[in-house]
């Protein structure tokens, strides 16, 4: 299973970006798909996730600005980021997990850099 993250870049404060996480198989096979980010010198933190039933959750720091969604036909999960702030600067990673019995099998995509700067 591979997760391919893309869409990062340099954007000015107040701008927007859309990140994509393309899976090598149907995203229905995942119980959980989410986005995490890691800023320099900080721990990786959750940003948003979507579960198989479609429910979503966002970190308080991005509520009202970010949206997570999925396109089942394209096996892709998106993170729409609006009103970006310098503190959103980080490497963003997508994560997928599958529940197998009592275990969660976790997959990570490579990171995509988001830089918010004027």
Description of the molecule:
The protein has 118 residues and is mostly beta strands. Helices cover 0% and strands 55% of the residues. It is built from no helices and eleven strands. The strands form two sheets. Strands 2, 4, 5, 6, 9, 10 and 11 form a seven-stranded mixed beta sheet that branches. A four-stranded antiparallel beta sheet has the order 1-3-8-7, with no helix packed on it. The chain is globular, with a radius of gyration of 14 Å. The model has no long low-confidence stretch (mean pLDDT 96).
Number of DSSP helical runs? 0
Share in β-strands:
over 45%
Largest sheet: 7 strands, mixed
**Helices and strands, in N-to-C order?**
EEEEEEEEEEE
* Rg for CA atoms: 14 Å
- Summarize the amount of helix as a percent range: under 10%
Reconstruct the topology from this structure:
Layout: E1 3-6, E2 9-11, E3 17-23, E4 32-38, E5 45-51, E6 56-58, E7 66-71, E8 76-81, E9 90-100, E10 103-108, E11 112-116
The gist of it:
The chain is an all-beta fold and 118 residues long.
List keywords for this structure.
118 residues, mainly beta, 7-stranded mixed β-sheet, 4-stranded antiparallel β-sheet, globular
């Amino acid at each position: 299973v591979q997760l391919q993250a893309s869409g990062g870049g340099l954007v000015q404060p107040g701008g927007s970006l859309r990140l994509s996480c393309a899976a090598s198989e149907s995203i229905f096979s995942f119980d959980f798909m989410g986005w995490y980010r890691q800023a320099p010198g900080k721990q990786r933190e959750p940003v948003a996730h979507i579960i198989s039933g479609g429910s979503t959750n966002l970190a308080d720091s991005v509520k009202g600005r970010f949206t997570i969604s999925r396109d089942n036909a394209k096996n892709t999960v998106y993170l729409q980021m609006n009103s970006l702030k310098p503190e959103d600067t980080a490497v963003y990673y997508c994560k997928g997990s599958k529940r197998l019995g009592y275990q969660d099998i976790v997959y990570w995509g490579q990171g995509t850099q988001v830089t918010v700067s004027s």
